[in-house]
Amino acid sequence: MLVKTFGSAVYGIQATTITVEVNILAGTKYFIVGLPDNAIKESYFRIESALKNTGYKMPRQQVVVNMAPADVRKEGSAYDLTIAVAVMAASNQVETENLDKYLIMGELSLDGGLQPIKGALPISIQARKEGFKGFILPKQNAREAAIVSDLDVYGVESIKEVVDFFNGDAVLRPTVVNTREEFYNSVNNYDSDFSEVRGQENIKRALEIAAAGGHNVILIGPPGAGKTMLARRLPSILPPLSLQESLETTKIHSVAGKLSTSDALVTVRPFRSPHHTISDVALVGGGSNPQPGEISLAHNGVLFLDELPEFKRTVLEVMRQPLEERKVTVSRARLTVEYPSSFMLIASMNPCPCGYYNHPDKECTCPPGMVQKYLSKISGPLLDRIDLHVEVTPVNFTELSSDRPAEKSGLIRERVIAAREIQLARFGTEPGLHSNAQMSTKMVRELCKINTAGQTLLKKAMEKLGLSARAYDRILKVARTIADLSGSDDILLEHLAEAIHYRSLDRENWAG
Q1: pLDDT of residue 73 exceeding 60
Q2: Environment class of residue 55 by beta-carbon count within 10 Å: exposed (0-12), middle (13-18) or buried (19+)?
Q3: Helix, strand, or coil here: 424?
Q4: pLDDT at residue 125 tops 50
Q5: Considering its fold, how many domains does the chain have in total?
Q6: Backbone phi, psi, residue 204, to 5°
Q7: What's this model's pTM, rounded to 2 decimal places?
Q8: pLDDT of the residue at 63
Q9: Which domain range does residue 446 map to?
Q10: Residue 113 pairs with which residues in a beta bridge?
Q11: Which of 31, 89, 186, 224 lies at 20 to 30 Å from 55 by C-alpha?
């Protein structure tokens, strides 16, 4: 008897429906074809044990399993339930009447229970698009898949529930998630706040500018000055995720298997902080079965690289293209996948190996030339993509012990949102352009015009401070953001002067 069931394969953040065909013939062997990987070939043993331990039986005839389309490689253990239901239907243990209306996915345990799968959200989206009535999957993934409307999502705990459902012996209750309610109840729920940071008002101002214009930042200062503490609070002043951004971010985390069972949506901007020992593949994504890397998991959020010079140079260099294009393309012999990676980069570093160069109280113990050698670990092309270079100085005792309340993240966020709204109005006709940091050179010339006095100031700054030519566009972009924060249509001298102040590493004499 020939039976068909339906599963799905995820490539990048898009899903493709896979048809599982099972035919039972005279004989004794079990064949599985259609480019399965080892995890799928091993499914026979999991399926046989699961059926036996739940009171069913594996047919003792020749079983041929075909996974179509046969020219696309299938990977992972999530097809266990799809194949098991098809095998049971072909051996007359499951009614076939409604099988074609449901997409079925899940990894089987030997006792018949189900383990969670990856990519439930993109699979659910594709199932609705192709007109399936429902999606049957492990209970741990049900809330994640149920944010897709017009699709019945059934979370099950064992294969017995699925068999009883198709045989009409049990009724499954669909999981229901109110997507908008889920989103609006959890948006902007951050555990940390800028009001917890004592002093450092100038650094808070720099991060406010960065958040308002989507600029990348590097914080340079001695150990214990508060670089990491400040960086971790940056998401709390960014504009809240839109529902569309939330869904897009959730898809990436779903594919990577990073969503908890209690989460249906990613409702706050991601903050990813990989260790400096990370590999280039782990950072940008890849592998034999391409998975999203840290820069894609930080999509619509913040990627924090602590102790930037300690990262391997090859790791840092692979970020250059994603920083510009805001996407990552991973190519393999059989497929090419694309992951979005529109994130804000915030990096921190000590100014030298001992950490005390330019410290107001402690003396640097590094030998001559060591500071410049340490800074040279970060390439010019990467620094070219970082708009704000901010020097962080230690907080004195008076500020640390002060009882004066600091400004809350919510108040700063309001100013950031107002500045972003100005930018959205400015770039309304440009697709995919949301902030000043994304402006092209041509747009900088059109939208960041400065008067004669401004030109004179910028010329003197480049000559006297030794600013590089690459700093020119960056300064104008940052000045445009500062003007937006102050509600000014024009870039004034004070806006330009503040933007020039944030180019520490472009000064030729900064490192002696």
Answers
A1: yes
A2: exposed
A3: helix
A4: yes
A5: 3
A6: -60, -40
A7: 0.88
A8: 95
A9: 439-512
A10: 158
A11: 31
